[in-house]
């Protein structure tokens, strides 16, 4: 299997598992651990965890909001100066989760490279 | 290089975590706020109105039926379970507001919103809000039955708070990044203080003192008469007062200090008030008495009111509750209906205090000195800092103004005597009203009630109607408390209270109706001292004239009256203006506007332009008449609108009509023209920017979120007419916060509506679903369940099972 795909699935699985007992930053823990176990190369180090968590958060938020016609999301999108557009709010939610996970992924990768070189 | 990369990525990770997890300015901790597991997406949930739950503390099962307005109908087996369930259900739907209001009362907003609230908090502390709540609590402790219900209510709220995980917190907690603290009985006392401050802290003493000093006694009396000729008081003029055997306190021979103060504390909104009335069976189209009530307050979301039905096998009541207080406040039960309007008299007075020395441990009193007591107020701020404020207490009350607060003299200050700090068990009044069956029960319920004084209107299925002006009123001497008093003179202390049985009241009057709209409680024949301290002069006359206009009234008539936009004030001012104003200098554009208001029928309706003209013109005219009041660094209150109109129409050449800064001597007619031209200019400009100035758009009625009016959670440009002086007393953001009309059939038929919704969650369809109907004057029939069984109006039933853990 493609390494990117393995990283994607691992990150997703860990993020979902951790979310049951950790706050929102569980996605950062998931990304760091995955980066150590399934290290990636170049920009994928950032973008794979970024897209994994972005998709996860957008998907989950969408499921929560759609049963309530996004009544609150539209108001919060006003509050955050997004013109009342709940799709934009979904996007922002995804980008924030993604950013946290992506940066954590980069850190995990550096941790991995660092320990590899010190072991040799 | 490796080290550098590692450290750089670590730092970046920490920075990203910090930024996303911290509240920065007004931006919430954004990842905490938006993540789908604990953030706002979790508040995006339809209401859950059925199922079973187990909550410890309940003795027997409780059933809660929710109707299609999300009104809970609570059926308990005993009072303790009932009030425990009331606390639980209120917290479930209104937790953030419930807590926020008591933080505001206690002067603790800085803990939640930060430094911006320090001034507000300090004012609350200096007014003794927490001290007052402690006094009330001390009184309530003497009543073990009420205390047990207060405790049950408190436990009910805490049962909900304790069940909350991060994800279930109301949105506002997530936005401001804090958590609810446990509820306690003192918070109920604080909420009642909040209402007392809103309704019973109006006074003009220091402003009047300044006016007296500047204008002299004769002019003062001309500007601020104690009574007006047209007063149509709450208790009818022909009342026989011979039953009053006590006398008014004699006026002592003494001087009042003519001090000055540059700035006073903000006053409650002068429009805080209400309408209520009851008509007898003889005057009712169906033969059953009818009762109506609509309290006027600043309109917020979540609404100040929360509607409930509260039932046990012994009693069943329904109506508007105040989140934080027990029972129904304005509503009905199987046998009676009741409602309240504000009956304030001057119940807040100021005393000049002279300290012995800089230590301020003693102040002058009589021939000697009395000790002050010190109360240290700690104001905690969100960032972790604490500010200390020391407030000195005299036997009158707290020294609100001193050299630490709006004053500059280290050796003197102004102490406040306020009924709000007297302490009282006001909760028991409402608990008793909820179970009252007849006039005597009603009377016993309201007897111990202290403040804020209310006009308690009453009607029963037995056919009685009544109205008591109830509160504790000091038996003041003529003129006492109108101005600053001498805190060292024992003659200036508040005298004994008027015995409760001599409070003004009326039962089954011949005219067939009782009513109140915050006007004078009585006329000059009442044996105790009353003076005009800002009483209504318009709504009251419209209401009373309406009930004198025909023989029989229906529920629809009463609804219509609550929604009446007839502008009596304009109708008493405008014809005179139009008759006497010289229009020869008006331009074509001005003439167009002039003709618009000339054709007005005095109804402030939303589709008209004339009420927009009037609402711009009148304040300009008013301010122009009283240009003499524009004095820097002197606190002054201008005379009331009624007196202003009286002088404009009866004394058009009075010296006050002259504008001091012009060399000419102006008359009322000059002021009319001058302010009309300014009005026209403003409206023409408005039209260029916003289009036609029809009243709905021009007035821009809104209901703002309780947290600094957050626009995203507020509602704007509502289609409702009226202004502060119409029976439908809707100004821009202040008006009928609850309307109810009840027919005392058996069982009673009730209709109610309020500008909000039952849910405090901005993500719920029930957050603001009643606003549109409220604005256009529609009512919902209240589903007063007769048995603990769901009928067709019920959408879900929840059961609470007791547990003995």
Question: What would your notes on this structure say?
Answer:
The complex is a heterodimer of chains A (120) and B (805). Chain A is mainly α and 120 residues long. Chain A has one domain. Chain A is built from 5 helices and no strands. In chain A, helix 1 packs antiparallel against helix 2, helix 1 crosses helix 3 and helix 3 runs antiparallel to helix 5. Chain B has 805 residues and is of the alpha+beta class. In chain B, helix 12 packs antiparallel against helix 13 and helix 17 crosses helix 18. Chain B has a domain of 132 residues. Classes of the chains: A mainly alpha (120), B alpha+beta (805).
Termini separation of chain B? 61 Å
Termini separation of chain A:
28 Å
Q: Provide the β-strand percentage band of chain A.
A: under 5%
Specify Rg of chain B, calculated over alpha carbons. 28 Å
| Portion of residues within helices of chain A | over 70%
Question: How would you describe the shape of chain B?
Answer: globular
Keywords (chain B): Hydrolase, Zymogen
Family (chain B): Belongs to the peptidase S45 family.
Protein name (chain B): Penicillin acylase family protein
Organism (chain B): Winogradskyella pelagia
Keywords:
heterodimer, A: 120 residues, mainly alpha, 5 helices, elongated, B: 805 residues, eleven-stranded mixed β-sheet, seven-stranded antiparallel β-sheet, 22 helices, globular
Question: What secondary-structure arrangement, pairings included, does this model have?
Answer:
The complex is a heterodimer of chains A (120) and B (805).
Chain A (H helix, E strand, L loop, with lengths): L2 H16 L7 H12 L6 H23 L4 H9 L6 H34 L1
Helix pairs in contact in A: 1-2, 1-3, 2-5, 3-5, 4-5
Chain B lengths: L1 H20 L8 H5 L16 E6 L5 E6 L4 E4 L3 H27 L3 H5 L4 H9 L2 H12 L3 H19 L8 H6 L8 H16 L4 H11 L1 H7 L49 E7 L10 E9 L1 E2 L4 E6 L4 E6 L8 E4 L2 E7 L5 E7 L7 E4 L2 E4 L1 E8 L5 E8 L5 E3 L10 E7 L7 H10 L3 H8 L7 E7 L4 E6 L14 E2 L18 E3 L5 E4 L22 H10 L6 H8 L5 H13 L7 H11 L11 H16 L15 H10 L17 H23 L4 H5 L4 E2 L28 E3 L2 E5 L5 E5 L17 H5 L4 E2 L12 E10 L2
Parallel strand pairs in B: 1-28, 3-7, 6-23, 11-20
Antiparallel strand pairs in B: 2-3, 2-28, 4-5, 4-22, 5-24, 5-25, 7-8, 8-9, 9-10, 10-18, 11-17, 12-13, 14-15, 16-17, 18-19, 19-21, 25-26, 26-27
Helix pairs in contact in B: 3-7, 3-9, 6-9, 10-11, 12-13, 16-19, 17-18, 17-20, 18-20
Keywords (chain A): Membrane, Transmembrane, Transmembrane helix
Organism (chain A): Winogradskyella pelagia
Protein name (chain A): DUF1097 domain-containing protein
């Amino acid at each position: 299997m493609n390494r990117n795909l393995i990283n994607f699935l691992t990150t997703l699985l860990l993020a979902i598992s951790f979310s049951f007992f950790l706050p929102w930053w569980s996605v950062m823990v998931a990304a760091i651990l995955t980066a150590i176990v399934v290290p990636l190369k170049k920009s994928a180090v950032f973008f794979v965890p970024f897209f994994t968590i972005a998709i996860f958060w957008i998907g989950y938020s969408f499921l929560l909001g759609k049963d309530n016609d996004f009544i609150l999301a539209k108001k919060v999108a006003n509050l955050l100066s997004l013109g009342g557009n709940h799709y934009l709010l979904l996007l922002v939610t995804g980008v924030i989760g993604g950013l946290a996970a992506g940066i954590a992924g980069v850190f995990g990768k550096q941790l991995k490279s660092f320990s590899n070189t010190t072991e040799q | 290089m490796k080290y550098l990369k590692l450290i750089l990525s670590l730092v970046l990770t920490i920075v990203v975590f910090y930024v996303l997890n911290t509240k920065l300015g007004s931006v919430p901790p954004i990842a905490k706020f938006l993540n789908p597991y604990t953030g706002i997406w979790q508040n995006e949930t339809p209401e859950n109105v059925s199922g079973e739950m187990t909550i410890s503390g309940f003795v027997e099962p409780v059933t809660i039926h929710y109707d299609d307005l999300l009104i809970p109908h609570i059926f308990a087996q005993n009072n303790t379970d009932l009030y425990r369930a009331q606390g639980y259900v209120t917290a479930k739907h209104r937790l953030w507001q419930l807590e926020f209001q008591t933080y505001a009362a206690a002067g603790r907003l800085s803990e939640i919103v930060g430094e911006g609230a320090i001034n507000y908090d300090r004012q609350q502390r200096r007014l003794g809000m927490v001290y007052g709540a402690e006094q009330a609590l001390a009184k309530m402790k003497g009543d073990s039955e009420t205390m047990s219900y207060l405790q049950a209510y408190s436990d009910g709220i805490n049962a909900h708070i304790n069940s909350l995980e991060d994800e279930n917190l109301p949105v506002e907690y997530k936005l401001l990044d804090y958590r609810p603290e446990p509820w306690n009985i003192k918070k109920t006392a604080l909420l009642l203080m909040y209402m007392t401050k809103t309704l019973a802290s109006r006074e003009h003493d220091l402003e009047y003192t300044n006016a007296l000093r500047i204008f002299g006694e004769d002019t003062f009396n001309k500007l601020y008469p104690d009574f007006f000729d047209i007063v149509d008081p709450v208790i009818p003029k022909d009342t026989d007062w011979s039953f009053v055997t006590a006398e008014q306190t004699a006026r002592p021979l003494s001087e009042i200090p003519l001090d000055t103060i540059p700035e006073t504390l903000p006053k409650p909104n002068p429009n805080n008030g209400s309408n209520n009335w009851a008509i007898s069976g003889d005057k009712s189209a169906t033969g059953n008495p009818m009762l109506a009530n609509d309290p006027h307050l600043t309109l917020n979301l979540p609404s100040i009111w929360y509607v409930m039905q509260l039932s046990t096998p012994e009693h069943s009541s329904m109506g508007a509750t105040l989140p934080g207080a027990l029972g129904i406040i304005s509503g009905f039960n199987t046998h009676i209906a009741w409602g309240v309007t504000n009956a304030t008299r001057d119940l807040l007075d100021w005393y000049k205090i002279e300290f012995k020395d800089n230590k301020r441990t003693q102040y002058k009193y009589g021939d000697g000195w009395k000790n002050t007591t010190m109360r240290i107020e700690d104001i905690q701020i969100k960032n972790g800092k604490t500010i200390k404020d020391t407030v000195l207490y005299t036997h009158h009350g707290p020294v609100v103004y001193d050299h630490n607060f709006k004053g500059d003299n280290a050796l003197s200050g102004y102490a406040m005597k306020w009924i709000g700090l007297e302490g009282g068990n006001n909760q028991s009044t409402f608990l008793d009203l909820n179970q009252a069956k007849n006039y005597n029960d009603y009377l016993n319920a309201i007897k111990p009630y202290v403040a804020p004084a209310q006009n308690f209107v009453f009607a029963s299925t037995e056919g009685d109607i009544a109205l008591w002006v109830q509160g504790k009123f000091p038996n003041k001497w003529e003129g006492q408390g109108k101005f600053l008093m001498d805190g060292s003179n024992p003659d200036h202390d508040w005298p004994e209270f008027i015995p409760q049985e001599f409070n003004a009241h009326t039962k089954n009057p011949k005219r067939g109706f009782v009513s109140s709209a915050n006007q004078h409680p009585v006329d000059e024949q009442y044996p105790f001292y009353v003076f005009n301290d800002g009483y209504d002069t318009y709504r009251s006359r419209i209401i009373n004239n309406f009930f004198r206009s025909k023989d029989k009234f229906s529920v629809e008539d009463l609804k219509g009256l609550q929604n009446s936009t007839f502008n009596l004030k304009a109708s008493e001012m405008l014809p005179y203006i139009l008759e006497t104003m010289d229009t020869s200098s008006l331009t074509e554009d001005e003439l167009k506007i002039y003709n618009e208001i000339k054709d007005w029928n005095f109804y402030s309706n939303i589709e008209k332009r004339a009420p927009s003209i009037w609402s711009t013109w009148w304040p300009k005219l008013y301010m122009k008449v009283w240009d003499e009041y524009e004095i820097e660094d002197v606190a002054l209150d201008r005379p009331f609108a009624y007196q202003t109109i009286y002088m404009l129409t009866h004394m058009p050449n009075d010296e006050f009509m002259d504008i001091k800064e012009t060399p000419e001597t102006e008359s009322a007619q000059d002021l009319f023209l001058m302010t009309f031209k300014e009005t026209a200019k403003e409206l023409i400009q408005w039209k260029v920017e916003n289009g036609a100035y029809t009243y709905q758009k021009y007035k821009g009625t809104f209901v703002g979120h309780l947290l600094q009016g957050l626009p995203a959670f507020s509602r704007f440009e509502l289609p409702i007419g009226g202004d502060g002086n119409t029976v439908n007393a809707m100004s821009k953001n202040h008006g009928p916060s609850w309307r109810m009309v009840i027919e005392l059939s058996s069982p009673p038929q009730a209709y109610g509506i309020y500008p909000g919704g039952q849910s405090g969650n901005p993500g719920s369809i029930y957050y603001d679903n009643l606003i549109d109907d409220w604005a256009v004057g529609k009512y919902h029939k209240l589903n007063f369940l007769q048995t603990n069984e769901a009928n067709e109006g019920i959408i879900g039933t929840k059961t609470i099972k007791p547990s003995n853990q």
